[in-house]
Write a structure and sequence with these properties.
The complex is a heterodimer of chains A (about 140) and B (about 400). With about 140 residues, chain A is an alpha+beta fold. Chain A has helices spanning about 5-10, 65-75, 80-85, 90-95, 105-125, and strands at about 25-35, 40-45, 55-60. In chain A, about 50% of the residues are buried. Chain B has about 400 residues and is of the alpha/beta class. Chain B is globular. The chains are: A alpha+beta (about 140), B alpha/beta (about 400).
Chain lengths: ~140, ~400
Amino acid sequence: MAYSDKVIDHYTNPRNVGTLDKSSHKVGTGLVGAPECGDVMRLQIEVNDENVITDAKFKTFGCGSAIASSSLATEWLKGKSIDDAMKIDNMDIVEELALPPVKIHCSVLAEDAIKAAINDYRVKNGLAPIESAKAHH
Amino acid sequence: MNLPIYLDNNATTPMDPRVLDVMIPYFTQKFGNAASRNHAFGWVAEEGVDYAREQVARLIGASEKEIIFTSGATEADNLAIKGVFEMYKDKGNHIITAVTEHKAVLDACKHIEKLGARVTYLPVKEDGLIDLAELEANMTKETILVSIMYGNNEIGVIQPVKEISAIAHKYGALFMTDATQAVGKIPVDVNADGIDLLAFTAHKIYGPKGVGALYVRRKGPRVKVTAQMDGGGHERGMRSGTLNVPGIVGFGRACELCQQEMESEAKRLSALRDRLQSSLLELEESYANGNQDHRLPHVANISFKYVEGEGLMMAMKDLAVSSGSACTSASLEPSYVLKSLGLSDDLAHSSIRFGLGRFTTDEEVDHAIAVTKKAVTHLRDLSPLWEMFKEGVDLSKIEWAEH
């Protein structure tokens, strides 16, 4: 199966690889997937007082599409408000990276990671987690 | 050095130019049907087939009359299992095989289960070998066939074929082996090993694709299989269909070359493989899979913990290797062979098979080592699991959200 140029680009030069201080109240961490399924994503966001994501980092165990999906997600997250970040849909990632049907689950995982990071941030700051309207599992 | 480097010789091998040379006349000039008895075109083709049959038989210590040409090992496996079941089902309906067999064997067994066979799928020990005591414990009066592969395609372990055949014979069962990965790589002798049926193919031994053979013992005991392909009664009635003369001629030459070069080649390849493996095991948290003492000389299967196989292969695009992970399927199932060794799913997902071959050079192995080390390091830098491992987090204690 051939990967799209965008997947290869993100895979070869992943953006925003790294780790934020997960104990900080400004940082939300989402850890999704499972090693036995062959992919685990950790996505972290740092949020300022205006509810804007100022930084995003990821680390992913998985195939090229999973790595590219999470790399792309961090690019999109930076500078977005929490509300706008919640609107990122896995199909946007599928479209941007031209993922084939067998790799759609990678984009789903990235969307889950975004939502998990936001909810982690919300819970840390005394807010209720937002229930996702979509049921992926 | 040409890139990418081919290190997937368990999947298929390039054809040796010396094999191609002998095949070419059989496409255009000596194109006759080997079954045409009444003109020279047929006789010439038949002569080519006869000569090849001797070359093929000699490599496994058989008589040329015991070789049934097929389209490949998959067909040979099918013919052996379905053909033996059909021929001997009045004697008994029980067949024993192992969970690490090739799909051609497992699926043929699944097929005959629907026709009334009872099949025992033996587990393997964590080194990939079957437990002989367990085999014996499963033998019954109803057992007509034991089918255990010679060398495994994914991890390269060599089963104790001689001991297995002795157990099968002790209980009056036939012994069949899928020797696709072993023939031409290590000495295989149907008499010394007590083999009654043996499947193998040309394209794993530097011959053409589309041709293989089933060895069917003729003496002590005389083994028969019911044909699975009906037609002109070729191959002593066991496999109808016009013979693939150029393919068979190439198969013969490929067998002859293996016989001549096997000993030195096995030494060269195992030295190269050992160098590759020991260099890669210098990486932290990397493990060689399968029994290390009873192993084909050209195979190494290594798990690099905390990186995913498919992602790893993408970083190793200069290398043509194979991964135990298949993330493309809906089920995300890792290799059933590795899982049957007791490897956890995540470790099975993290494995790479390196298959060296006749045309693999020292320089290529050096490059493969460098590329693999760099790729593993790159992916571990990206891996949250690696970071957690380094922080001392026990990954088995985390509640993962399975998807």
